[in-house]
Amino acid sequence: DSGYPQELHLHTPYSTVSTGSAEEQYNAAHSRGRCVVERCNGVLKNRFRCLLKQALYARSCL
């Protein structure tokens, strides 16, 4: 996902892969997992409508 850089704690899909490679399999598994998470977020937002609104909070310390 181009929205997130590769980090030690965050694994993103490979940008270029060859057919049948381990990287392609990883990308497919990553995509399936992301779909599950997005579906769950949709279900939660439908059930708890307050999640559709922007959270208002003040940062007190860094």
UniProtKB/TrEMBL annotation:
<keyword id="KW-0479">Metal-binding</keyword>
<dbReference type="Pfam" id="PF13359">
    <property type="entry name" value="DDE_Tnp_4"/>
</dbReference>
<dbReference type="InterPro" id="IPR027806">
    <property type="entry name" value="HARBI1_dom"/>
</dbReference>
<protein>
    <recommendedName>
        <fullName>DDE Tnp4 domain-containing protein</fullName>
    </recommendedName>
</protein>
<feature type="domain" description="DDE Tnp4">
    <location>
        <begin position="1"/>
        <end position="55"/>
    </location>
</feature>
<dbReference type="GO" id="GO:0046872">
    <property type="term" value="F:metal ion binding"/>
</dbReference>
